[in-house]
């Protein structure tokens, strides 16, 4: 009996290997804001940069690459988990060539949003310009690999899209223009409409496998808590509730896109509840501090305010949920990435 089973077992094992090889993601392509920017703003005329110490102090080689973190960010970790490179390079970095970008490329820009008015705040790369860079990348990839192979990579790549927080915190709640035009519920719908248009744009260009990331508990970011003086620096629940409502609408958009666009596979990446748990119960996850960031006093500092000479910058960022007043530490990024790899991104591994 064993003699007859052996060929069948071999066939089954072969089919599993073939299935896995077909499911493998050949490249990671990134759109978004500072949560996923690996350094594009270094090469763009804006003050929204982080290519200086103490940023990157825990990055390989201790290099400040332009990532708004002490170390790596989620796209890097996702790329490595997929068996690709341990970092995803910034498209505008002249140090890299199309041969580097063939397995991973980042078009994200810190400070940007779905709304063009958001990118105007700090003079960063608007989302439409990220798409133009993507079109340029497609041409380079086709010239490098040939039309057929490039099209396969572009259609089977995993597109990580992480954007939206700045639309609320740096735009709607900071300047009066959008608030005079929209209630917060209407603004959510406005952003969801822009998100839909964006997905349809890159879908028309060949993108098929996408991850749309929701916003975090925005009211618990150190900067928002620092300014919440009336409530003794507690999380701003109004912002958190808006984030939850927006995420619900984004999840609805993902379902709609999967129904309407043939061949598309979009997932909703939700780290809201996990990050809230890290903030509410940091010690459970090995953290000591969740109200302030590691950099400077951790209450207001980010970008150029995050000064390498500040006597307050912590020694061990692993003890902090946040690196600066707006962005998670590398340890938090790893926990979030691990969660997403086990949930929404599991199907792509």
What can you see in these coordinates?
- The relative contact order is 0.13.
- The chain has one domain: 3-Layer(aba) Sandwich (Rossmann fold), CATH 3.40.50.
- It has helices at 2-23, 74-81, 98-101, 116-122, 127-145, 147-156, 165-172, 176-181, 184-204, 222-226, 237-260, 272-280, 330-342, and strands spanning 28-32, 104-106, 158-162, 209-213, 265-269, 289-293, 320-322.
- α5 (127-145) packs across α6 (147-156).
- Mean pLDDT is 90; it is low at 1-23.
- The chain has 13 helices and 7 strands.
Key features?
alpha/beta, globular
In short, what is this structure?
The protein is an alpha/beta fold. The chain has helices at 2-23, 74-81, 98-101, 116-122, 127-145, 147-156, 165-172, 176-181, 184-204, 222-226, 237-260, 272-280, 330-342, and strands spanning 28-32, 104-106, 158-162, 209-213, 265-269, 289-293, 320-322. It is built from 13 helices and seven strands.
Largest sheet: 5 strands, parallel
Low-confidence stretches: 1-23
What's the rounded overall pLDDT mean? 90
Please name the CATH architecture. 3-Layer(aba) Sandwich
CATH class category: Alpha Beta
Strand order of the largest sheet: 2-1-3-4-5
Count of DSSP strands: 7
How far the N terminus sits from the C terminus, by CA atoms, comes to 35 Å
The figure for the number of domains is 1
Enter the CATH topology name: Rossmann fold
Q: Give the CA-based shape.
A: globular
The radius of gyration over CA amounts to 21 Å
Category by helix and strand content? alpha/beta
What is the H/E string?
HEHHEHHHEHHHEHHEHEEH
- Report the total helices: 13
Percent helix, as a range, is 40-55%
Query: How much β-strand is present in the residues?
Result: 5-15%
């Amino acid at each position: 009996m064993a003699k007859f089973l052996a060929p069948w077992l071999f066939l089954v094992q072969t089919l599993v290997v073939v299935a896995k090889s077909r499911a493998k993601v050949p490249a990671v392509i990134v759109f978004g804001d500072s949560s996923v920017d690996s350094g594009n703003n270094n090469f763009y005329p804006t003050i929204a940069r982080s290519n200086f110490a103490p940023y990157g102090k825990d990055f390989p080689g201790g290099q400040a690459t332009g990532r708004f973190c002490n170390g790596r960010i989620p796209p890097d970790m996702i790329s490595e988990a997929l068996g690709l490179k341990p970092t995803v390079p910034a498209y505008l970095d002249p140090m890299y060539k199309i041969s580097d970008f063939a397995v991973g490329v980042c078009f994200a820009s810190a400070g940007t949003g779905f709304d063009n008015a958001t990118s105007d705040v700090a003079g960063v790369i608007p989302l439409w310009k990220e798409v133009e860079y993507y079109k340029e990348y497609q041409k380079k990839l086709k010239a490098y690999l040939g039309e057929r192979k490039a099209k396969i990579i572009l259609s089977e790549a995993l597109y990580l899209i992480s954007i939206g927080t700045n639309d609320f915190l740096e735009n709607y709640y900071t300047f009066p223009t959008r608030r005079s035009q929209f209630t917060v519920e209407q603004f959510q719908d406005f952003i969801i409409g822009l998100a839909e248009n964006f997905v349809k744009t890159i879908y028309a260009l060949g993108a098929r496998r996408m991850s749309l990331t929701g916003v975090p508990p925005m009211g618990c970011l150190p900067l928002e808590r620092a300014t919440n003086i009336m409530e003794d620096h507690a999380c701003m629940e109004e912002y958190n509730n808006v984030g939850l409502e927006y995420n619900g609408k984004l999840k609805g958009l993902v379902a709609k896109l999967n129904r309407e666009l043939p061949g598309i596979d979009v997932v909703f990446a939700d780290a809201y509840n996990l990050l809230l748990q890290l903030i509410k119960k940091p010690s459970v996850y090995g953290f000591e501090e969740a109200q302030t960031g590691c950099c400077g006093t951790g209450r207001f500092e980010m970008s150029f305010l995050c000064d390498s000479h500040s006597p307050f910058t912590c020694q061990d960022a692993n003890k902090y949920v946040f690196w600066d007043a707006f962005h998670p530490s590398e340890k938090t990024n790893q926990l979030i990435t691990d969660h997403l790899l086990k949930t929404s991104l599991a199907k792509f591994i």
